[in-house]
Amino acid sequence: MKKKMLELLKKNREDISKTTLNEILNNEEKEIAKAVKETGLQTIEYINREKLENSLKTKYIGNEILIYKEVDSTNSVAEFLAESGSDEGTVVISKLQSQGKGRHGRKWESPSGGIWLSIILKPDMAPSKAPLITLATGVAVAKTLISIGVDARIKWPNDILIHDKKVSGILTEASVKVNTIDYVIVGVGINNNLDIKMLPEELQKKITTLKNELQIKVAETELILKFLNEFEKVYNLFKEEKFEEILDDWRKMSETIGRFVEIKQTHGKSVKGYAVRISNDGSLILKEKDGNLKKVISGECLIKK
Ligand code: BT5
After folding, report:
1. Cα of 121 from ligand 1 centre, angstroms
2. Residue 179 CA, ligand 1 centroid: distance in Å
3. What is the DSSP string of 22-69?
4. Residue 23 scores a pLDDT above 80
5. Most CB atoms closer than 10 Å: which of 34, 124, 197, 261?
6. Is this prediction's pTM over 0.90?
7. CA of 85 to the centre of ligand 1 (A)
8. Residue 44 has what pLDDT?
9. Ligand 1 — pocket residues by CB below 6 A?
């Protein structure tokens, strides 16, 4: 992790001297974290930091916003900072990611033009509640996108679709200590202005961007601002354990409930059925062919036409 962070510093600070790097290398983790933070406070032209900071209506989400030109993954940087004691609400944004992460080791394509960001969360909650953070984040993303005029729908558990094409994905990674959540990193990718042709061919048909849908460029700063404001509202509900309120919103924007689906699971098995409802721990309840109800905790959801 230390080595990775030093690479990050090199990539983001062309002027960093060899001596400084060596000095950093010899210092403790906290010193590296300090340098990583300083780098993230530099001006990166694609986001208007002043506007972002001045217009945020949040109390703690975005109290610290770190912006980079390039990182391997904003989730990894946020994880490093959380380990080094960064506060809840710290936001890590990057113009591009060289190794953007999806779930289960999958790759998330992250060229410039997208919103790639992660938030450090420290909820005082049992680890079993972590999947609800993904659903809550989905609610915040979908509300943000609907507010700018697209027909965004949530596909269980972590995708946001527009007309059946993926526009956004969420990656929630939790660190657990003795039956409680130590911290959670929630990562959000939104295909904003990126050029679809920059992505692998097999993906091009399955995904969309906001620019494609709206035929205009959405300003990154505005989009991040709207999302962080929405996120704090729904995350507060999560912390107050008002799970039903979150799930009510989730159901209204769901593309999954009421559809025939196949859930592919990591161990190679798959379950097919009618998606009846979402339960209050965030799992999906399917009605199988034989009428049995089956609870599915995670997996890749394919919606059958
Ligand atoms: C996700 O995983 O959808 C989670 C994506 C989270 C990305 C954010 S960006 C900021 C933060 N930092 C990170 O490193 N990650 C988070 P999953 O459900 O496993 O979906 C992955 C699949 O989505 C891939 O296998 C592709 O099929 C597809 N995919 C890859 N890149 C995409 C893109 N830019 N847009 C739409 N689909 C994509």
Report:
1. 20
2. 28
3. HHHHHS-HHHHHHHHHHHHTS--TTS-HHHHHHH---SSTTSSEEEEE
4. no
5. 261
6. yes
7. 27
8. 87
9. 73-75, 97, 100-103, 106, 108-110, 116-118, 158-159, 166, 169-171, 187-189, 191, 203, 207
